[in-house]
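haha ok so turns out i had the wrong file open the whole time. this is the CORRECT one, sorry everyone. sequence first:
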Amino acid sequence: MAGCLSTVTEMLAAMEALSKLAPRGGKRLGETAKALVGYCEDCAVECQKHADHHAVCKECLDACQRTIAAVRKA
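then structure:
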């Protein structure tokens, strides 16, 4: 689960940065959102390993997948 902790921590930091930038609509917002997809993809890979055993991992996996889909749609 050490890999999970590491990727979740990175994903959360990236998500926090995006949440602070999004309301401002900065010129690099799109680039930041695309980078966030990479963090969410990494996190989803780790969450998938534990999703059948831990509800929190399943919830995180689902959230990452929804975020990836939303950013790609935008």
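The longest helix spans residues 29-50.
again sry for the mixup
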